[in-house]
Amino acid sequence: MDLNLFVQQNIWWLLLIFIWATAWKAWALWIAVKKDQKAWFLVFIILSTAGILEIFYIFYFSSHTKVHSKHKK
Fold first, then answer.
1. Strand (E) or helix (H) holding 18
2. Hey, what's the torsion of the CAs at 3, 55, 43, 66, to 10 degrees?
3. Burial of 43 (0-12, 13-18, 19+ CB in 10 A)
4. What tens digit of pLDDT does each residue of 20-72 get?
5. Total structural domains in the chain?
6. Domain that holds residue 54
7. CA atoms within 13 A on the CB side of 28
8. Does a structural domain hold residue 8?
């Protein structure tokens, strides 16, 4: 199958997948930055997993660590 034809026939699905993955990546990056987790940040920047890795991080890995507050009282 020709790639151009495939893209033309599936443009809305491809766009939906792109939006889905970008939203999860943005949320996971935001959490990683707030928790000062540089390794996770780099993993999310380097790997593209259509949101799968980001979903695991958000709901499993990030819930096991606490946010470190930089503000002292």
1. helix 11-34
2. 170
3. middle
4. 989 999 999 999 999 999 998 998 888 877 788 888 888 888 876 555 555 55
5. 1
6. 21-67+69-73
7. 29
8. no
